[in-house]
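On clarity, I found the account of how folds are encoded harder to follow than it need be. What matters is that the chain and its backbone geometry are given together, residue for residue. The format is easy to grasp once an entry is in front of the reader. For illustration, here is how one protein appears when written out as sequence plus structure tokens.
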Amino acid sequence: MSKRIVRAPSQRQLRVGEEIRHALSHIIERREVRDPDLAEMAITVTEVRISPDLKNASVYVVPLGGIGDVIEVAGALNRISSFFRRRVA
């Protein structure tokens, strides 16, 4: 059985992740998202994890004020992921 070595993220990964988190938070804060499921929803971007090659990112979000509609929010954000990719790029 092979054991996988888990490395801490590099300084660059942390910096890029933080920049992406700020960019996404700013987009959501300015209400640039026109999805009806997210219209009245306050969303917090809690963390962005970047792959070592900086090609992929995992974004962690939570609806502000509780965990009420997590599945609905996640589905809506996944639907408009291409919009976020274009805006952050």
